[in-house]
Amino acid sequence: MDIHFDLMALNWLAIVLATASAFVLGGIWYGPVFGKQWMAEFGFTEADVTKGHPAKVFGTAIVLTLIAAIVLAMIIGHDSNLHYGALWGFMIGFGPVAMFIGIHYVFERRSVKLFVINALYPALSLVMMGAIIGSMSS
Description:
This protein has one domain. The longest helix has 27 residues, at 82-108. It is globular. Helix 1 (12-33) packs across helix 4, helix 1 (12-33) packs antiparallel against helix 6 (112-135) and helix 5 (82-108) packs antiparallel against helix 6 (112-135). The two termini are 24 Å apart. It has helices at residues 12-33, 35-42, 46-49, 54-76, 82-108, 112-135. The protein is an all-alpha fold. The protein contains six helices and no strands.
């Protein structure tokens, strides 16, 4: 089997929009929606989460999200649509990503509540990212 990825053939606008959408969802998800519960589960205070250099934290998060979007675009391919892209996002997000987070949480003895918060964010992000990438495919 010959696998070849042409990075220049990817829809970079779709990738950037998908990256931005996941980043915005993260801000909402870990802010007004589940921010206080997430902090409580980890025992963080507002001061704890504002420690560190914001450019480094958010810059790293954007780069990692961009890499995820690129890989997702490579999986979805060029001949796609919104539904196919969202389906791939669902299969990856609710399949391996959420399940491996769950495996870590079982061994780390973390709560089911924290698992739901931290596993649903990437799963929903990947569905949304897949829908964007798929709908903008050629």
